Amino acid sequence: xxxxxxxxxxxxxxxxxxxxxxxxxxxxxxxxxxxxxxxxxxxxxxxxxxxxxxxxxxxxxxxxxxxxxxxxxxxxxxxxxxxxxxxxxxxxxxxxxxxxxxxxxxxxxxxxxxxxxxxxxxxxxxxxxxxxxxxxxxxxxxxxxxxxxxxxxxxxxxxxxxxxxxxxxxxxxxxxxxxxxxxxxxxxxxxxxxxxxxxxxxxxxxxxxxxxxxxxxxxxxxxxxxxxxxxxxxxxxxxxxxxxxxxxxxxxxxxxxxxxxxxxxxxxxxxxxxxxxxxxxxxxxxxxxxxxxxxxxxxxxxxxxxxxxxxxxxxxxxxxxxx
Length: 323
What we know:
By secondary structure, the chain is of the alpha/beta class. The chain is 37% helix and 20% strand. The strands form two sheets. It has an eight-stranded mixed beta sheet, with helices on both faces. It has a five-stranded mixed beta sheet with strand order 6-7-8-10-9, with helices on one face. β9 (220-225) and β10 (228-233) form a beta hairpin. It is globular and about 60 Å long. Residues 1-8 and 161-180 have low confidence and may be disordered.
């Protein structure tokens, strides 16, 4: 006789027990905020954030991943108190368009495209300040465009493919009418293949197409994120390296007085979590409402909790400075 299925109530209880157990290892950063601020006392806090799933909700259409006005106001205040950088897998310019804040540092393409003020300033009052770009994968750009074009061509047969890329848009002979299915997004140094709306029967076909394309371009590799395949240059650079670059750039590379806080929800953020763990310095915080393997020490359930946590940092910083 086969095993009976769990009822919905039993399933929910089992999940609740599993999540509660996971929280014992990765407690809520909100619950531990007072303790965390006590640990950072006398040290320079530097904030690092992912974008999608951290500052904005994960949405069906990546082009509509807008952050709320309230989140933007809180983020502005955070950046006024602490050096703040956003490290995203998206194209850097696209993240800047979403965030619309001038007092934040930006890194796109999983840290492969970094922009920072030329004079290392944390005073962003001058909108015309000069910037310096750090792009460790710049030499791969021509080949990456070839990968994008080939991948775009070969996935046309999959129902619902939607190509999103300004630079090569005019080079494509046609584009499918449906916005559902695969969304191939050119993120400058990386390519994101979103498959949230791909039919289960087509997912294997898509994976095979990506593998076939990358066999022809072995300078690139693929990794998985949340309903997305991330294709990027096969070099030793990730979000963890970007975090280290920012710390070094800001003069905190070897400092014992700095305390980095990194908040992210994706597998690619694990590289940054790992850097903080190895440094023995800082708080890696994962955004997740479900148990998952992670190097993070703390957790937050969703972007709303991220906003609450960031606001808490500002409020407690103000209270500390006024006493």
